[in-house]
Amino acid sequence: MVERKLPKLKTRVRFPSPAPSQMPASFDGRLVVAISSRALFDLEESNRVFEAEGVAAYHRYQLAHESEILEPGIAFSLV
Known about the structure:
Blueprint: H1 37-40, H2 44-53, H3 55-64
């Protein structure tokens, strides 16, 4: 089996953010919550592929399933 080299993935995520002058100087007194995509969506199968078969298999899995709507994960209702 010939393994082809996968292209480097480029991702750019842009979030709306306030102008720099409106950013708080610190987060003192504020609750900051970070939620991973694996908690937000059910990505257990893709993570299993990644851990068991590696990056190339994970990339193929992602391409094969890119049109499927993700099921909610454990933290979905929190958000």
